[in-house]
Design goal:
Layout: H1 2-9, E1 20-26, H2 33-40, E2 46-51, H3 58-64, E3 68-71, H4 78-88, E4 93-96, H5 108-116, E5 122-126, H6 133-142, E6 156-159, H7 160-163, H8 176-183, E7 188-192, H9 207-219
Helix pairs in contact: 6-9
Length: 221
């Protein structure tokens, strides 16, 4: 398996890895998803695409590129797509990345390494700069409970065992992903990753306003 090759290239490993999965939520990414799948496939044993009821050819392009496509009958949003991907994954470790090409698949080994070495159950790919002000605020608020530099990153690695325990109740994964993981006793690590600029229309993240209240619930526990 590809995971065997990857593990041999990592320094040491105490984690009994048999298989590595990648979960990629995607919505209207027909022009970018093929490259993401192709490059991700170099490092994992299965690539699971959760097509969130795209109105373009995202699902078709993904299948042709070798992705295991799960198509939603309606748009359920990023956080529900992530949870759905966890349920369908067969790997011992699951990596998550975005379908727009912003994350660099060649850094997957960097994300996996702390888990493989037995140092973490969850690894966050730390961006050099968090562009959205609302996301920076949520990260600042999260730090009252758990010290972390990038609680909203979409580039992660997590053990399957931990992934299936997470309820992830919120409007997005900002803050609550790491807060819930830590509450379950998870060891968390952060590693620096690069972000590739992507030309696409980005809507104002109004859901971050509501996400504040989900994080607040965790702060009060």
């Amino acid at each position: 398996m590809k995971s065997d090759i990857l593990l041999r290239n990592l320094a040491t490993h105490n984690f009994p890895v048999k298989k590595i999965s990648a979960v990629i939520p995607a919505y209207n990414e027909e022009s970018r998803i093929e490259d993401v799948i192709s490059r991700t496939s170099n490092y994992v044993d299965e690539v699971i695409i959760i097509d969130d009821n795209s109105i373009d050819r995202t699902a078709e392009v993904s299948r042709n590129a070798g992705g295991n496509v799960i198509s939603n009958k309606e748009n359920i949003g990023y956080i529900e797509c992530i949870k759905k991907g966890f349920l369908h994954s067969t790997g011992d470790i699951i990596g998550t990345l975005d379908g727009d090409g912003e994350h660099v698949p060649d850094e997957i080994p960097v994300i996996l390494k702390p888990i493989v070495e037995g140092k973490a159950d969850l690894v966050l790919g730390r961006r050099k700069k968090i562009s959205r002000i609302s996301e920076r605020f949520l990260n600042w608020f999260t730090n009252f409970k758990v010290k972390v530099e990038d609680s909203g990153t979409g580039f992660r690695a997590i053990t399957k065992e931990l992934a299936l325990k997470l309820e992830l109740k919120g409007k997005c994964t900002c803050g609550i992903f790491i807060l819930e993981a830590v509450s379950l006793g998870a060891n968390v690590a952060e590693v620096p990753v690069k972000i590739k600029p992507v030309k696409k229309n980005r809507r104002v993240a109004w859901h971050h306003f509501l996400q504040f209240f989900f994080i607040l619930k965790w702060q009060l526990k």
